[in-house]
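Newbie here. two chains, one complex. Structure please?
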Amino acid sequence: MAAEVLVHPQHAPAQMLLRDVHVLDPRGGLDERRDVRVRAGQIAELGAPGELPADPEEELLEGSGHHLLPAFFDPHVHLRTPGQEHKEDIETGTRAAAAGGYAAVLAMPNTDPVLDSAPLLRSLRDAAAREARVSVGFLAAITIGSAGERLTEMAELREWGAGGFTDDGRAVQSAGIMRAAMQYQRLCGGVLSLHEEDEALSRGGCMHEGAVSAALGIAGIPTLSESTMVARDVAIAGYEGARVHFQHLSCAASVDAIARAKQRGVRVSAEVTPHHLLLSEEDVRTMDTRMKMYPPLAGGEDRRALIEGLRAGTIDCVASDHAPHAREEKEVPFEQAPMGTTGLETAFAALYTDLVLPGSLDLALLVERMTAGARVFDLPAPAIAPGGPANLTLVDLGAEWIAGERGWESRSENCCFAGRRLRGRVLLTLAAGTVAYRERAFSVVAAT
Amino acid sequence: MNHLLSIEDLDREAIERIIAQAARFAEVSDREIKKVPTLRGRMVLNLFYEASTRTRSSFELAAKRLSADVVNFAASGSSVEKGESLKDTVLTLSAHKPDAIVLRTPWAGAAALVSQWCGAAIVNAGDGKHEHPTQALLDVYTLKDRLGSIEGASVWIVGDVAHSRVARSNIIAFQRMGARVTVAGPPTLIPRGIETLGCEVRFTLDELDSADVVYALRMQRERMGDTQVPSLREYSALYQINARRLSPRQLLMHPGPVNRGVELSGEVIDSPQAVITAQVEAGVVVRMAVLYELLAGRRGPSSAPGQREPSTVAADEPRQLA
């Protein structure tokens, strides 16, 4: 039997009573104040606010009406282990996840070496069991070294717990190899998670092709580089009956292609990042290297199409594409800087501040989209229901903070939202029944 | 003015002030002894990450005519080749306490970045394909000298706009001085969105007649490989400025070095309409004016940025020079 995809944190199970919290679980239809008891890492019972009796064996937390949400699931993070531990490792990356309210993440295989073999996968899973604060799954590469030439041993990788396959950071340029991967998927399963980029169109580019790139004299990447590959892979997936997921969408044309594919019944899903939802090419004008990522921040109309796609469900889930880089790697001229922004610690607050508060998106819908990544990868979605594992995050929606002001849990600080005033602060995260994160100022109330 | 990073930072008044100062320095250049003591004891560091003889020597000459000390630092053959980062190189060279750093790099935004790292006045001598503000100033100076005023003039910038920092700085500078700017060239070499800078875009030279000034850009032969133009032969047939296309009332400019027979034909280069050598001459006096604007009346460099007095121009200096 194949190994379970997620490796869970091995800390002591939580025993606590969360008193008078506002439980919001869109899938379970819950939106009301409740007491929630967690016993041995499981959600034991829900009761009327202030009604559940405290137990001296448990920690008592006064929720004061703060929101208790199913903890978030991130289908796209870079933990940089092995080989790039100066940027991030499993411990610091999952600490950042926990601080952002996530109970589980899927790590990308574009490490050094690339995760393209079962022995490497097994050693990473062992490391995650020792070091991770939240549940971690690993995606394996589609092709050896993500070089786009030969398929990895997908069946064996799947057997050892690969959560799916991706060459993220690169795209599979050859339609023939892509087709072979989709054919092989019939044998081994596992979602193909696709970074889309036609390198013949993007080569040499550092930012979105448009008015800002023209003014800065920086070579642009046309949105075509993404959308034509999305269209290609929708066609192949339709032909092969494959199950594919599109990573970090950045433009209206890709959203359109996916909407049409879904209408035709092709088994596709898609994710979008907070930065593509909230920022645009205008934010690159100062050539701040934190604003450099792939795909590049596009135009305002693309941004609006992404928000609408997320709202309508064409885009299934939010992914942070948390991509840490060391300070000295980003402290260079824009064209020399590596692509990527961190995002785990700011994703919820940034989206809450800029989409929910102005009324563009319901809070319940945001919570749904921040947890839906689990279902996309055929994993159980976190739920607030008795009998299930405690994957919970407690959030103070009124709390205001400045991103990065008190440092980061991540080893890197290349966050595109750094310095922004955000609303909504994570107070507590439980991952697989263990306490993964606790806001320092959020104190324990002794049970009486 | 603390730095010259982008022509965007200069309003019309500032451009005119620098041009007027350059005109005063031009008189010095005609004297037997071409030196003034204005920047004696100051140090100008030329930090060049790209090959450049014209711009570098123009800055060197400008600094020397102002009696400043000049140190040239070329990236090739230096610690940069051993992997030193731009930031570390700048911090190391800052130990010599330069008053100004003239910086040329292949990277957009590098000059602005360096201005955050050290206390010297930074002069952008070309940052990637982004900007080349002193080129724009010397072009404005040259045009003003010939036309009297640029107001209302029609300037056509022809050729490889996509890879040209000169084009970007000049589109802004000429418009700021009241000119109407049109860019023309093959669609593969006109960046999408360039019209947002306020210029017109043409893909042929059919209406070149309407121009008062034709500014031809250097066609970079090394870019022929990447399919942006099918051949130099066809490019020349469609876009070369030659005697057939250039009318006698038009002025011809070019930032150099010229590819004779590619973007310009030999006969127009040598015609009296061409002001290409006047541009080179203007380069020295305009760069003198820029260094003067940045350094005269300013204290020596502090170790950290932001602690500097705003530069002021001593009231008696211009008179003394003129």
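Moderator note: The mean pLDDT of chain A is 96. Chain A has 14 helices and 18 strands. Thread marked as resolved.
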